[in-house]
Specification:
single chain; alpha/beta; five-stranded parallel beta sheet; five-stranded antiparallel beta sheet; 15 strands; about 35% strand; elongated
């Protein structure tokens, strides 16, 4: 028996998929969710083998939901948009169903599901690689993070800094810190370079949050942020910073 969840913000799409799945004896629908916040909780509590996941949803997207899951289940994407197909298959999702799809097309996707195989498991390493490889569609406006069982959506303009922390990036915003799996290279690429400067190999800073800059050791500097943080600036980083601040 394959235990699954339906995650879609359209009630009609949920009901149609549920009706289709009722004809598959090896599929058990554990629940249906309208948004990524509730789905995040549901996945943690119900631990499904498979999720049918829409991409464009309110609050957070399907891709953002997957970023928050440490051990994501197998995924079949269900969406009205064909623009995400390449990204979905790079994540090695089982299938990508373009709405409206038929029961026969759904059957083809379900045939690919095997609980004993790794195919279709969207691991965090896959998510990290795909995030860095996909073409950029405008600068990052928000960052979705989790704290325990809660999800927070951070406005990029409110984030003071990003700092490398092993395989994670520490995100500092409004006096709080969050850890998220990722790389500094990804955030440097995705954030507006007019607002965020890579001041050091380990630090990326929102220049609007800088309160002062002081010399520190030979040819190095320290910046002081409005939240009280102090971060080192490399020689190369100082060149970028001076250019951005026009000093």
């Amino acid at each position: 028996m394959i235990r699954c969840l339906i995650i879609d913000d359209e009630p009609l799409a949920q009901d149609l998929l549920q009706d289709y799945l009722n004809d598959f004896p090896d599929i058990e629908v554990l629940g249906k969710f309208n948004d990524g916040f509730e789905a995040f909780k549901g996945i943690g509590e119900l631990k499904p083998d498979l999720i049918f996941l829409d991409i464009e949803m309110p609050k957070i997207t399907g891709f953002e939901l997957l970023e928050l899951l440490e051990n994501p289940p197998k995924v079949i994407f269900t969406t009205a948009y064909d623009t995400y197909a390449i990204k979905a298959f790079e994540l090695q999702a089982i299938d990508y169903l373009l709405k409206p799809f038929s029961k026969d097309r759904l059957a083809q996707a379900i045939q690919r599901v095997s609980i004993d195989e790794d195919n279709g498991s969207v691991t965090q390493s896959k998510m990290s690689k795909v995030r860095e490889d996909i073409p950029k569609e405008g600068f990052l406006k928000r960052v979705v993070v989790k704290t325990g069982n809660k999800i927070e959506v951070l406005n990029a303009s409110n984030i003071a800094s990003f700092s490398a922390d092993g395989d994670y990036v520490k995100i500092n915003s409004d006096g709080k810190s969050y850890l998220k799996l990722g790389t500094m290279a990804y955030y440097e690429k995705m954030l507006d370079p007019q607002a965020f400067i890579r001041i050091h190999r380990s630090h990326l800073v929102n220049i609007s949050t800088i309160s002062k800059i002081e010399p520190y050791q030979k040819e190095n500097y320290l910046i002081f942020l409005k939240d009280g943080a102090q971060l080192p600036v490399s020689k190369k980083g100082m060149v970028k910073l001076k250019k951005a601040l026009r000093i």
